[in-house]
Amino acid sequence: MSSGRRRLVILISGRGSNMRALVQACRQENWPADVCAVISSRPDAPGLQWASEAGIPTASVYHRDFASREAFDAALAREIDRHAPDYVILAGFMRVLTAGFVNRYAERLVNIHPSLLPAFPGLHTHAQALATGVQAHGCTVHFVTPLLDHGPIVAQGCVPVLPGDTPDSLAGRVLDMEHRVFPAAVRWLAEGRVRLAPDHRVDVQGNPQRLFVWSAPDSPNHNE
C-alpha cells in the first residue's frame, strides 16, 4: 500500500448518496486521499453524472453484458486496477461478488451495510428489523470477506426503531447515520490508522469512538 496519499475507487449501483458523502468529506476535510474513480454496475446510475460533474473519472461495467458472475467480476477488476487503488469502497454496490474477486482485494475492500451486523445480512434489512421487533437498528462499515455481509467491523451507527416506523422511514434514519459513519471510517483508512489484528478484529490508531449513536434533531447533541 502506498505510504503517501491513499487512492480510493468507489463502486456504486444507483444514486450514490454515500459516494457523494465520501467525496464531499474527503475534499472538505482535506483527507490524505483522492477518489480516483467511481465505477457503477449500471450505466444509468444517477451517481455517475454527479461524480463526472465533480471532476472524477467514471466508468460502468454492466453486469447484464456478461454471461457469468465470474466474467463480470473479471471485467470489473480490470477497470478497478487501471486506477491502482489502495482501497475499493462499496457504496451501495448491489452485486454479490465472487470469492475470487474478494480475495483479490483482501483487506482493501470495504462495504457499508444497512444493519447492525451480524444481524440482518442480505436485502430488505429495514423490513427484517421491523418484523423481528428490534428496538435498535443501524449500519455497519466492514471489510469484505467471501461470506456475504460478514467481515471485520470498522464502525457502526445505531438508530432507534420508533413507534409507527415503516421500512421507508427507518431507512431514511439509517441513511442519515450512514452519511456520518462511512466518511469517518474511510477517513481512518485514508489516514493509515486502521489495522487488522491477528484475531481479525479491527484496531484504529488513537482509539476513536467507533459506535455512532443517533440523537433527535432537536437534541443539543444532534450532529448529523
Features:
224 residues; alpha/beta; Rossmann fold; 8-stranded mixed β-sheet; two-stranded antiparallel ribbon; 6 helices; 32% helix; 23% strand; globular; transferase; GART; purine biosynthesis; phosphoribosylglycinamide formyltransferase activity
Q: What structural category do the secondary elements indicate? A: alpha/beta
Strands of the widest sheet, in order across it, are 3-2-1-4-5-6-7-10
Q: What is the strand content?
A: 15-25%
| CATH superfamily (homologous) name | Formyl transferase, N-terminal domain
CATH class: Alpha Beta
Counting H and I runs of at least 4 residues, what is the number of helices? 6
Mean pLDDT comes to 95
Globally, the shape reads globular
Regarding quaternary structure, what we see is: single chain
Tell me the span between the first and last alpha carbons: 32 Å
What is the CATH topology descriptor? Rossmann fold
Could you name the ranges where pLDDT drops below 50 across 5 or more consecutive residues?
220-224
Protein name: Phosphoribosylglycinamide formyltransferase
Keywords: Purine biosynthesis, Transferase
Catalytic activity: N(1)-(5-phospho-beta-D-ribosyl)glycinamide + (6R)-10-formyltetrahydrofolate = N(2)-formyl-N(1)-(5-phospho-beta-D-ribosyl)glycinamide + (6S)-5,6,7,8-tetrahydrofolate + H(+)
Active site: 113
